[in-house]
Amino acid sequence: MSARPYVAVIGPAAGTENEHRTAEEVGRLLAEAGAVVVCGGLGGVMEAAARGAERVGGLVVGILPGDDRHDANPHVAIALPTGMGEARNVLLARTADAVIAVGGEFGTLSEIALSLKLGKPVVGLSTWSLAREGLAEDPIRRASTPAEAVAFALHP
Amino acid sequence: MSARPYVAVIGPAAGTENEHRTAEEVGRLLAEAGAVVVCGGLGGVMEAAARGAERVGGLVVGILPGDDRHDANPHVAIALPTGMGEARNVLLARTADAVIAVGGEFGTLSEIALSLKLGKPVVGLSTWSLAREGLAEDPIRRASTPAEAVAFALHP
Amino acid sequence: MSARPYVAVIGPAAGTENEHRTAEEVGRLLAEAGAVVVCGGLGGVMEAAARGAERVGGLVVGILPGDDRHDANPHVAIALPTGMGEARNVLLARTADAVIAVGGEFGTLSEIALSLKLGKPVVGLSTWSLAREGLAEDPIRRASTPAEAVAFALHP
Amino acid sequence: MSARPYVAVIGPAAGTENEHRTAEEVGRLLAEAGAVVVCGGLGGVMEAAARGAERVGGLVVGILPGDDRHDANPHVAIALPTGMGEARNVLLARTADAVIAVGGEFGTLSEIALSLKLGKPVVGLSTWSLAREGLAEDPIRRASTPAEAVAFALHP
Predict the structure, then answer these.
(1) Distance between CA atoms of D49 and D11, rounded to whole angstroms?
(2) I want to staple C73 with a disulfide (CB 3.0 to 4.6 A). Which of A5, B63, C47, D120 is the partner?
(3) How far apart are CA C93 and CA A109, in angstroms?
(4) pLDDT of A1 above 50
(5) Which residues of chain B have a pLDDT value below 70?
(6) Which residues of chain A have a CB within 8 Å of the CB of B37?
(7) What is the distance between the alpha carbons of residues A41 and A91, in angstroms, rounded to a whole number?
(8) Which chains does B contact via 3+ CB–CB distances below 8 A?
(9) Are strands B141-142 and C129-131 parallel, antiparallel or unpaired?
(10) Which residues of C touch A84 (CB under 8 A)?
(11) Which chains touch A (3 or more CB pairs under 8 A)?
């Protein structure tokens, strides 16, 4: 079972309707491809991705900032309450083989950065744009559809 | 699925043969009772408990001290590489509804203490004895068989 | 400055008057010996040790479980708000060259265990007694006075 | 002492000579203004900022990713070995009242993001540019000189 890829879907707890639809589709496609879906375990984009995966029988891991396992959304099969606040973002990045960002606030940006720091491929669906002098291109790979994002994440 | 109890089985990476047999039996009984088995993900007691659970179809979560998911023993279904060293012991304590200690070195003692601090029931099979002035009894509940330990952990 | 020894004084947030007197004396003696006093930054034994050190010009570091630096007691010179709850206990153990436990509840026990795990000498003043089959003696070194505890911690 | 502002100076372990000169000047100005300088404790920008502060008598705190206090650069007065790898970046963000980024790789980007998430003002000297649809301006405040960066950080 541990040979299955782990893909994190990250994004805000209060995304737009469009972001939630996108995340749900990403979750569904990841599960259909046999990936374990890792998320922050709460609402919004996290819940949408979890719902998409669970509905087709996928396995969803939620890594929670708080200390109560029961705060996880109902689509999470395995909930890890870290009690470490934003420090849990590092655990998401470490656990995932690849990361798909859907939308994103500052917390999502930190997960993107930590994933890049750890050498994990990061795919973005309408998320942050990053630029720095001397950097030829944005280190986030852009996808325009959930299917493209999933393909990039599984075959970086 | 999140309604299932999560029980951590903790103990040394290099336990005695007897401790490993005990841990495997504990893992088996927990899985048969429908519990998710949480462990430190490495060898020794951790691996024995995982093997016992997996062999009867149980679900095993491994919370690793290192940063590589593939360090988990082969019976772990969901591996979380924390990269936080001994700080991961807190995550074990937080994630579990109850804890069963089999044998134990200082790392196990820290998991026992953190679990007690967080109000989780701790059952011991030949593990540490704790005493303190003014404390009427050892806060670790003693069990003499794996079956008794599992019964205590699931019905504290 | 980094050549100075770092000694953690650990104990409950609500200790007895006697424990507080003891911790204050420990803090004072550590500071007079040139040690940096590390503590959990809150009240009770933590505050008493910090007060004892600060009053003779010692430097006190507080490693807080919460996320607000201003929760530190007024004798802490450098406050680190970890926002990680009990996971901060590992940071205390890592930072210290030696640990002195004064009294102690489960949180203190976890700091003792983590320090022992990390190979740091642990000295106890009326704290936990630890026993395990096959272990010849309690791994906590007993001291009967603050002066003896400080001597053990600085010259283990 | 806890009333003094804590300002983190963040940037790569292997910055350019120009970044190091800038960081040293930032460290010096912060110390002269009475701030505690917080950094990641290692080389490059971290060491330059620490050197600048220490040379004028400032107090420097280093929050290290590894588990050995002695890995800190020689200008760090108080070293905290976290043993948590990149998870220590959260501690930098939590500890600081404001953050100044000098240059920056992905680790620095994660510290910027975590600081923004926690509501801390972030000032940038030739660092990342962040953009997102619907976001009117870069959440990093640009400074063109060390003096301007320090002024922004202390009076956001």
Answers:
(1) 10
(2) C47
(3) 31
(4) no
(5) 1-2
(6) none
(7) 12
(8) A, C, D
(9) unpaired
(10) 83-85, 87
(11) B, C, D
Say what percent of chain A tops pLDDT 70.
99
Distances (CA, A) of C131 to B104, B113, B150, C120: 11, 14, 24, 18
Q: Do D59 and C78 touch (CB under 8 A)?
A: yes
Partner-chain contact B59 A78, CB within 8 Å: yes
Above 60 in pLDDT, residue D2?
Answer: no
Q: What are phi and psi of D99, to 5 degrees?
A: -130, 135
Q: Per residue in A104-151, pLDDT tens?
A: 999 999 999 999 999 999 999 999 999 999 899 999 999 999 999 999
Nearest C-alpha of chain D: how many angstroms from B89?
Answer: 13
Mean pLDDT of C60-67: 97
Distance from CA of D118 to the nearest CA of C (A): 10
Q: How far does C133 lie from chain D, in Å, by closest CA?
A: 31
Q: How far is C11 from chain D, CA to nearest CA, in Å?
A: 20
**b/e sequence C55-81, b meaning 16+ C-beta within 10 Å:** eeebbbbbbbbbbebebbbebbbbbbb
Q: Can you tell me which residue has the tokens 């919004």?
A: A44
Cα of A46 vs its chain's centroid, Å: 7
C touches which chains (3+ CB pairs under 8 A)?
A: A, B, D
Measured CA to CA, the distance from residue D126 to residue A133 in angstroms comes to 8
Residue type, position C86, single letter:
E
| b/e burial code for range B120-136 (CB count within 10 A of at least 16 → b) | bbbbbbbbbebebeeee
Encode pLDDT of D109-132 as tens digits.
999 999 999 999 999 999 999 999
Among residues B10, B12, B51, B43, the alpha carbon closest in space to that of B153 is found at B10
Q: Does D156 touch chain C (CB under 8 A)?
A: no
**Of A80, A71, A82, A22, the residue nearest A51 (C-alpha):** A22
Of D1, B41, B133, the residue nearest C104 (C-alpha): B133
Determine which of A114, A130, A144 to mutate to test the interface with D (most D C-beta atoms within 10 Å). Answer: A114
Element spanning A89, H or E: helix A88-95
Q: Measured between CA atoms, how close is B152 to chain C, in angstroms? A: 21
Which ipTM was obtained for this model?
0.95
Q: Would you list the DSSP string of chain C?
A: -TTS-EEEEE--TT--HHHHHHHHHHHHHHHHTTPEEEE-SSSTHHHHHHHHHHHTT--EEEEESSS-GGGS-TT-SEEEE---GGGHHHHHHHH-SEEEEES--HHHHHHHHHHHHTT--EEEES--EEE-TT--S-SSEE-SSHHHHHHHHH--
Burial (CB count within 10 angstroms: exposed 0-12, middle 13-18, buried 19+), residue B3: exposed
CA-CA distance, D131 to C29, in Å (whole number)?
Answer: 54
**Chain B residues 34-63 with a CB less than 8 Å from chain A:** 36, 59, 61, 63
- pLDDT value at residue D134: 87
Residue A13: how many CB atoms within 10 A of its CB?
Answer: 14
Q: In 3-state terms, what secondary structure has residue D82?
A: coil
pTM of the shown model = 0.96
Q: In chain C, how long is the greatest CA-to-CA distance?
A: 46
Cβ atoms D48, D60 nearer than 8 A: no
CA A34 to chain centre: 15
